[in-house]
Fold this protein.
Amino acid sequence: MPVPSFVSPHAEALFQKLSTRTARTGVIGLGYVGLPLAVEFGRAGFTVVGIDVDKRKCDTINAGTSYIADVPTSAVAELVEANKLRAVPDLGAAERLDTINICVPTPLRKTRDPDMTYVVSAAQLVKEHLFPGMLVILESTTYPGTTEEVVRSILEETGLRAGSDFFLAFSPERVDPGNPVWNTKNVPKVVGGLTPDCSALAAELYGASIDRVVQVSSSRAAEMVKLLENTFRAINIGLANEMALMCDRIGINVWEVIDAAATKPFGFMPFYPGPGLGGHCIPIDPFYLSWKVKEVGFEARFIELAGQVNAAMPRHVVEKVADALNDQGKSIKGANILVMGVAYKPNVNDVRESPALDVIALLVKKGARVTYHDPFVPHVDAEHSALSEHLDSVPYSRDIAAAADCVVVATDHNAFDYAELVSAARVIVDTRNAVKMSAPNVYKLGAPNPGA
């Protein structure tokens, strides 16, 4: 590829370091996004320093061990041994870094407006170590304008100017935890800089370690790309959930309908209902956009409506449980309920925004005695969930399933033996269509009750 024509001499110098892999790279935030990215930078030949306030994470990485399921321990160990990767709890403990990627959380407040606390703190930290020629890239999902309005403003308090003295870009993370096919390296990386120099440098950094880089015209466009992707999913899942509610009312199996519709080779993409939305992106990101456009007097009606439908699904699951128990002559109050799976998606240990926790909280509020089993999540802390107390996963056995008044399949882990569940449990409420067989004791979300 031809060398870009740079305006800033600082850009030319950094490009040379990036192209020869002599640039020292840093990643702030070593979670599901930051650690896989740091590993890919190290594999590409860069020297990488990870920065995370959680000293336990730093110690684990420096011991050559991974705590992220999608990152093999062998990959971390190899890079640590080769002095290509290390982790520190503070940026001040790192030597001079040429590039810094910010990969910190961006949650919503209870009022559903963006909480920029972590981004602002990271930008303030970078500001203390900013120097001419540094490249800073924000990866945290946020509203359009954050990179330019928030991060740029903080960094320019040094007197240095973005695009000429230092370089600033946005590149949305596209991590799908537990996906065996798509990972940090082979998912195309969207990049948008404040200036052409910023974009070119960010593209060079990612291009060294990621298979394909897609440049857009600005950081605002790159920020909007991520919000479109996740808003698309949230709205279509909301539609699938509403279809499930309709099918439940009129006695049609929504899963059969979706599978049949998916045979159409054009004009249809299947989305599936469930107990609600979970994860660190889809339940949250659309509301960044909804909040931002209110500034220009625009109401994001699709986003708000989908949010209402999706947020109501845990209550619908509890109603389904009540129906199932009622058919057995029991009530929720005092019932023993076993929840299978609390992770937000199958085969991962992530419980962020998991609808299973909302279902458990609602069942407990109605007087049920609830336990859960999840081979990926040994315990759930109350402060990190909708629950009012700490819960531990119970060991699974056929006897445990048989003793429950109702078993709720909230997460469809591959490790679960659904045939055994059907034969052992008195009654099952399946929120994920995990049980493929028809059985008189299986109540499915979005389908007629058995015997109806």
The mean pLDDT is 94.
